[in-house]
Amino acid sequence: MQKLNTTLVYILSVIGFLCCCFYGVGTIAAIIAIVVASKELNKYNANPQQFVNGKAMKTAKTVAIISLVISLIGLALIAWFYFNQCEFYTWYLDTFGDQPGVTEEQLAPIYEAMEEAGCI
What we know:
120 residues
């Protein structure tokens, strides 16, 4: 009996989770994990008696799909921030600007970023 390579799929899925906010790197890792899992499952489906961990590979593929969804959400948030910088900065100031203990010195980088983006 042989084993399918679930370790690679799990490692790529974890990389997808960890890198979900790094401009699409998590998405790439998750897609690779899904492709590898699909190939391994095709081998398993062709001859299930030859492999002992087909159920584990199905679970690994599910984890890879979840990783892809989370990475796509992170990528969508990054894209939203890029195209709506002024709205984000306004939200940030409305949420955190009036908090006790927040000084103008701490908010200065936000005001500078707003100026660079043309929001002010």
